[in-house]
Amino acid sequence: MSTASESWTTIETDPQRTAILDAADRLLAGTSLHSTGNLSVVQLAIEAQVKYWVVAQRHPDLRNHFQVLAQAARQGAVPPTSADRNRLGEERDQLAQHCAGLEQLIQTYAVVINELATENEALRDQLRTPSATVTPLRRRRRGS
Known about the structure:
single chain; mainly alpha; about 65% helix
């Protein structure tokens, strides 16, 4: 399957739309049968052996799709295939799952930090009372 058909997300049953997609594939591959091979909508219509208005007005979605692919071909870019989109979708889902796990971990850390801060404050309050049962640890000086 070629670029235009592969990147088109809908399965086409209309013979005219299929002919336009097939013509787009040939033009993008550089194997035109009925046209000059230029990447234009006029040449797409000639390659598909349909009137220009059929491509331009009856099937503007296919026309726009071809124009995007033709622009990418002119710039040397390779448009994504359905396999690329599927792979990227899976990667996106994995990243979303990873982010959700990180967010849950952050929430856990926030609870732990809050608990430690509360306990630390309680211990400091105990130190301030005359009958303190907490013995503070003195810091060692470096180099001693």
